[in-house]
Amino acid sequence: MANESRPCPCDIGDRFDYGGRGQEVQVEHIKAYVSKPPASTDKAVVVIHDIFGWQLPNTRYMADMLAANGYIAICPDFFAGKEAWKPSDDWSKFDDWLKNRDPRKINKEADAVLKYLKEQCGAKKLGVVGFCWGGVAVCHLMMTYPELKAGVSLYGQIKESDDISNLLNPTLFIFAEKDDFIPLHQVTLLEQKLKKNCKVDYEVKIYPRQTHGFVHRRREDINPQDKPYIEEGRKDMINWLNKYI
C-alpha cells in the first residue's frame, strides 16, 4: 500500500468541522459510531474508515449522509483499538504502521458488526462502503460475506497481484484521475480482470481531475471546482446501494 518515494498521499485533505448526529456504541471488542435514519428500516451499511480511523469527522459525515438516505450506518473501529494514523506522523514509518493493520484481516471485527446489525438493529439487507484503506477492506469483504448485497470501494489501492474477480455481489469502484496513489494503469488492469472473470454486476468509474480522497476529504464549499465531482461521487455511492440493497 505504499511506494518508495512517498508512502501515501493521504494528507488529511479538508478535515470537516463536524460533530456527528449519531452515537458511539460498544460492539463486542470494538467501538463503533452508529447513525440511524428518522424512520425505522431493515437496511444497513457498514462504513469503513481510511487510515485516519473511525473517529475522523469526515467519515462520520458520510455515515450520517447514508442515514439521511434511509440506512442504518455503522462505522466501526476496524483498527480494534490500535492508533489511527495522524497527519503529524512520519511517512517513512507508514509501512511499519500498516503491518498490523491489514485491511484484509478484519473478519473478527466484521463478524461482530454484522451480528450487531442483525440482532440489535433488526437489519436484514446489508451493504458496505469504504474509503482508501477501507476501500481495500470492501474488496475483501465483498469476496467473503455473501450477506453483503452491495459494496462501494472508494479509491482503495489495487495491487497487480490482487485478483478481486471473485466478488460475491455487485460492487462499484470509484477512482480519481489524478490520484498519486493509484496509477490509472492499475485501474485498467482491474477492469480487465473484472471483465474477464467477474460473475456479478460491477462498475469502475474514474472521476476527471480529482485527487485521492475527493469524495470524503474535499469540501465542496472551499473547493468549488471539485463540487460537481464530489456530489456525483456521493450520489453514485447512494444510487448503487439503493439499486442492490
TrEMBL record:
InterPro entries according to UniProt: AB_hydrolase_fold, CMBL, Dienelactn_hydro
Keywords: Cytoplasm, Hydrolase
A Pfam family matched in the record: DLH
Subcellular location: Cytoplasm, Cytosol
Domain Dienelactone hydrolase per the UniProt entry, residue ranges: 30-244
GO cellular component: cytosol
Primary localisation category: cytoplasm
Gene Ontology MF annotations: hydrolase activity
Residue ranges crossing the lipid bilayer per the database entry: none
Family under the similarity heading: Belongs to the dienelactone hydrolase family.
Name recorded for this polypeptide: Carboxymethylenebutenolidase homolog
Lineage: Eukaryota, Metazoa, Chordata, Craniata, Vertebrata
Gene name of this polypeptide: Cmbl_2
